[in-house]
Amino acid sequence: QVQLVESGGGLVQAGGSLRLSCAASGNIFSINAMDWYRQAPGKEREMVAQINSGDSTNYADFARGRFTIARGNAKNTVYLQMNKLKPEDTAVYYCNAPLIATNRGIVYDTWGQGTQVTVSS
Description:
Layout: E1 3-7, E2 10-13, E3 18-25, E4 28-31, E5 33-39, E6 46-52, E7 57-59, E8 67-71, E9 77-82, E10 91-102, E11 105-111, E12 115-120
Parallel strand pairs: 2-12
Antiparallel strand pairs: 1-3, 3-9, 4-10, 5-6, 5-10, 6-7, 8-9, 10-11, 10-12
């Protein structure tokens, strides 16, 4: 069984920084891409940042220039460095892996449980 576990959320003042981590566990052969999404109360879940196996990245407009996504050396971990945080960044942040190759085959669309980020004004 494959799991994604996020950590690093918390309460921070506007202008501050947080670093989120997401670690994948299980009998994993490879993960091609890993993404961060977020969902604020009363809003739909939205993409924050994406990184593929070649370390190419893609950011939502609101994240570009403030957030940085990166993968660990083992490629089973992804980080989201968030700087210059704003109150509107308050949300639950989720890690996602669209495709994971395991010893039992391909696992699609794996999500973590989410980590709360709260930015006070």
